[in-house]
Please model this.
Amino acid sequence: MQRHYQEIAFATIVRMLTVASLFTLLFITAFILKESLQIFNEVSVREFVTGRQWRPVSVNPRFGLWPIISASIVVSSLALLLALPAAVGSSLFLAHVCPHRLRRPLRMLMDIMAGIPSVIYGFIGVVVLLPFMERLFDMSSGDSLLAGGIILAVMILPFIISTTAESMELAARGYVTVSSSMGVSRWYMLRNLVLPVSTTGVIAGAILGVSRAMGETMAVIMVVGNSPLMPFDLLERIKPIPALIALEIGSAPLNSMHYHSLFGAGFVLLVLLMVINLIFYFLRKRLSNT
Amino acid sequence: MRSKKSVLVLPLLLLFASMTGACQRDSERKTDAVSPHEEAFMNEIFFAGSSTLAPTISQLADSFTNKYRTWDKVDSSMPPEEIQISVSTGGSGAGARAVLDRTANFGMLARAARETEREALAHYQEATIGIDALLIAVPTSSSLAENRTNIKKEEVQRIFSGKISLWSELDSHLPGEEIVLLVRDVGGGAHGVFQRAIMDTIDVSERAVQVPSMSGLVNRLVDNRRAIGYASYGVAREHRDDLVPFTLDGIEPSPENIVSGSYPIARPLVLVWDGDLSAPEQVFLDYLMSEEGTAVISGMGFLPVH
Model:
């Protein structure tokens, strides 16, 4: 009987905590929405999202977030594009090729890489990557979309690898014994059996990577130049949403249009992340059905 | 079904309770605002605001704390409690907000307080402790530095608005290289000073590189011979071997000209607070204005006003 009560108490506490964390998320969203609503009294949602100019403190203020939204999307996609092939390769290696003795140290290295503070990545970007790019492309200043993409790619790599490698190990469990007993070569098995079944794992890794890249602030601020230009050119400067908010919120006077517009930008970022996660979710569902 | 509902109701109740609790505290705080310092002795002073001013205040706080240690050593009418002065940054706007939210005793502003900020505080008070000036500068490696030391306001406007994008367009003797504009974040206080003094209603080029800190900006400026930017007086003086500051329309950015106001690109460093000062707050403010305090302020690269 005693045990019974304990179990009920435990279940209740766990449920309460779950609900509480759900509410925290809900409240953050609600707060950001509330603070951003005022900007939409002044500027229509369409104008805010599709406007081409961001001049919040100009005499003739304009709140066009489009260059900034598209910069966020493009720089994260670029990072994913650069990181994904390397990540899939490393995961295959880590899960199936690498000798058992090496696996643990490599995993640990991955974890350390994931734990490096983003400002360190940014610092390396400023000191090493930017001067290198200036010389390589003969740029007048190395800050660019490409620099941001490269730094972000390196940063999200460990996250994608650890998720993907894990799912690859799980997905291939049945095939390994069968393949080796039938004399199928390891590389054939990896290419034709393991890789196709681990697509969902790769997608899960990609979601994690993109979400992180979208929200990354410090490292990005240091290497992209923060000019609100359209992301049409790899060597041109950009300003993604987190950089915008971090740069400007400190100096935006309380309750000014500028202040509310930054919350608006934060809300757009939240929605963007939700949409991306949903897209990946349905993609994954369709893939696992077929 | 029933049990599931009750599980949901409980946290909701808790949440509701905490919300009403928070509201109550809010209203209590408002009535407090009339006489905020008649409570128990507060041995800690909080500063919040501009990252330009924060290192200076931290330094002053350090020397003040090391000198006295406890409040009774400063003034025997105060209790022998440890002196604690905390400084946090987040920008001038955040400083004013912190005073309003009562999370800080003093807000540090690297600009004059805005009308809305003055009105938001019930008993607005301020003190200017120094002046920071921005110098238009290029690195010594720049070809523009070779043949001149003066720049006209109208030229600065043309360069920073992006009307001209190559150095050769400014002067046909200069190489046809891109002008790299280095500015602080366009919404920020430092840039606001530049905007008001030079650009007025003209927007700065979208292609300008926005650097999140002044030291970061100057480091970039020193390294890039195609760049032009503005450096604060103190940082420019630190890098005087690597930078060439320009006189603006013939006016030299000298301490005299900056304090007198004839050099236009300058901003006041202001402390704001609400209501009367408590005894510890008052003695620390006096210390800031003392000879010892002003020495620290000028040591940090600003021009003291006293």
Summary: The longest strand of chain B covers residues 124-139. Chain B has 14 helices and eleven strands.
